[in-house]
Amino acid sequence: MFQCLGDQVKRHKMNLFTQQTVMLWLCVARTLTTAELVKLSTVDSVIVWCHQSVRLQCNISTSQEGLLIKHLAWVRQDGKHLCDVNGTEVTGTHPGSTTSAMECSYTPQTQLSLTLLQVRPLDQGKYLCKLRSSHGVKEATTMVKLQESYKEAQPSISDEGPTCTFTGVYPDGEVHWFQGPNNVTGDSTINTKQVEDGASLTITSSLKRKTVSGEEAYNCSLWIPSTGSYLTSSLVVPEHDKARVAQPNASGSGSIGPLWKPFLVLLSTLFLV
């Protein structure tokens, strides 16, 4: 009798184990199947010039019809929701509403785009596209990185000497001065840095040198220590009492004309010797 009872208990435990195993496999299979029903795709990372715009696209694809999107959003790494889709309604941040303006656009069931306008250093980081739908929950990530850049170069001259101001500088930089082949950075007596809204910098440097009409022009070059290169250069010409920028492009992204690149390499070599 006791043996029969023991066998019944064993069979009962075995049945419970079998039922639990089957239920576990069903849950796993359902999860895997649901995960394959819908996919999100974004680019892994983008590199953008400071003060320019970038568009982040989150693409939705599904292997079955009947996808019901319950919630779709672009979310910054600090948890702030930038674009939200609830049903067919799209809400987001629009130009002028914050310092870092952005726009949202939505193609139903297909794509949610986030455009960052006038990207600043504070806008760098991770952006997540999050989806909650009838076919499962998915997430994709894009990293936004900034290229070294500046917004504007403002050279000027007075009887006291030349001055150069570079605005919107990213990352941190220094102003190096040259007169012909001579490095005269040591003569700069006024050097200031101010943090702008968005964490870029305004860098100003002056030479305390009496300017004489007809003397050789001064050159102020923006040096970026983190990259070990010059970003742009400006000429200050005493005989005309004015200054001119050495061929930056119209966007202010800091590219230098081909004629100036060998010159700046020479300046860099002279400075580092």
TrEMBL record:
Span of domain Ig-like: 52-145, 163-236
Domain of life: Eukaryota
Matching SMART domains: IG
Leader sequence segment: none
Record-given protein name: Uncharacterized protein isoform X1
Organism of origin: Salmo salar
InterPro entries associated with the record: Ig-like_dom, Ig-like_dom_sf, Ig-like_fold, Ig_sub, Ig_V-set
Gene it is expressed from: LOC106588224
